């Protein structure tokens, strides 16, 4: 009898407050080492999917001793890079595919349409790129009304955009990214799946906050770490300590291998929830 083909996994994870323990909740001491053991398997293709730019992703890998990924989706989906031995290479096909949404316009062009909106505080130049326009928002801003006005102005110019809101817990400030509709984390993950030949049963996404919502509400298997933003949990119909109502979404509960379900512990717990047959990977030498 022929042996079963080896399992393989495209593991896509957000960084801040998902893999990186820079939220308010504590990290389980063994969690990152278990994550590293899991993803160094040759069957795993690892992609970091982050709102950070490429330089800050590289900085996080060093600062938090993270495993080197195979791919990096940076700038909330507006940049896709292959991690090669000779450096990180931007994937031209991805950049071309998202550019059509703005009909030749850039983030700077869109900012000119929105610059007089007082709740918008433009982020630093390093946090902008051709297809990513990023603002800070004070916590008392009426976000739904603000987004409705942004959409109205763009519609007058026959432009469409995805408005992605999230929260920087450490700075206690809101974030708003204005992106081409195709430049979401969801589209980037699907692009990677097609490029590398993975199907949904071989793909898993992990996240914690608002810019992960498009993936979490899709049909792709997803993991919400236990320390996830309560606002995102509410949007997804989840509550801390309870099971998700959707089969494709798993909310880490904690208790797995004595860990708390936060950050890397939640990722490992989620991988084994969807793929319990891989549990041996945590014990076997690579």
CATH-wise, what's the superfamily of the largest domain? Answer: HAD superfamily/HAD-like
Approximately what portion of the residues adopt beta-strand conformation?
15-25%
Classified by CATH, the class of the largest domain is: Alpha Beta
Mean pLDDT: 92
CATH topology of the largest domain: Rossmann fold
Helix content: 25-40%
Task: List how many beta strands DSSP finds.
Answer: 12
Describe the model.
The protein is of the alpha/beta class and 286 residues long. The protein folds into 2 domains: 9-95 and 183-282, 3-Layer(aba) Sandwich (Rossmann fold); 104-179, Hypothetical Protein Ta0175, Chain: A, domain 2 (Alpha-Beta Complex), CATH 3.90.1070. 29% of the residues lie in helices and 20% in strands. It has an 8-stranded mixed sheet with strand order 5-4-3-2-1-10-11-12, with helices on both faces. It has a 4-stranded antiparallel sheet with strand order 6-7-9-8. The longest helix has 14 residues, at 143-156. It is globular, with a radius of gyration of 19 Å. Residues 1-5 have low confidence and may be disordered.
Summarize the entry for a quick read.
With 286 residues, this protein is an alpha/beta fold. The protein has helices at 31-39, 54-63, 92-99, 107-114, 143-156, 185-196, 213-216, 230-235, 264-274; strands spanning 9-13, 44-49, 71-74, 79-84, 87-90, 121-122, 133-137, 162-168, 173-179, 203-207, 222-224, 249-251.
């Amino acid at each position: 009898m022929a042996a079963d083909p080896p399992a393989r996994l495209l593991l896509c994870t957000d960084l801040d407050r998902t893999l990186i323990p820079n939220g308010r909740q504590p990290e389980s001491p063994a969690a990152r080492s278990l994550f590293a053991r899991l993803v160094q398997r040759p069957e795993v293709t690892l992609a970091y999917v982050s709102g950070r730019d490429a330089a800050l992703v590289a900085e996080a890998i060093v600062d938090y001793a993270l495993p080197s990924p195979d791919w990096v989706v940076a700038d909330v989906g507006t940049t896709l890079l292959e991690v090669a031995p000779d450096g990180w290479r931007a994937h031209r096909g991805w950049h071309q595919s998202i550019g059509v949404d703005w009909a030749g316009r850039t983030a700077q062009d869109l900012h000119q349409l929105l610059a007089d909106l007082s709740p918008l505080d433009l982020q630093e130049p390093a946090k902008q790129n051709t297809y990513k326009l990023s603002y800070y928002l004070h916590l008392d801003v009426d976000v739904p009304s603000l987004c409705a006005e942004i959409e109205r102005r763009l519609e007058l110019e026959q432009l469409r955009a995805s408005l992605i809101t999230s929260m920087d817990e450490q700075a206690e400030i809101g974030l708003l990214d204005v992106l081409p509709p195709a430049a979401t984390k969801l589209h980037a993950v699907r692009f990677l799946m097609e490029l590398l030949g993975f199907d949904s049963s071989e793909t898993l996404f992990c996240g914690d906050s608002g810019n992960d919502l498009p993936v979490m509400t899709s049909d792709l298997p997803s993991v919400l770490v236990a320390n996830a933003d309560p606002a995102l949990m509410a949007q997804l119909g989840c509550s801390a300590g309870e099971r998700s109502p959707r089969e494709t979404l798993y909310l880490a509960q904690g208790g797995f291998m004595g860990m708390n379900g936060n950050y890397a512990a939640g990722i490992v717990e989620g991988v084994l929830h969807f793929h319990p047959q891989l549990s041996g990977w945590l014990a076997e030498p690579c």
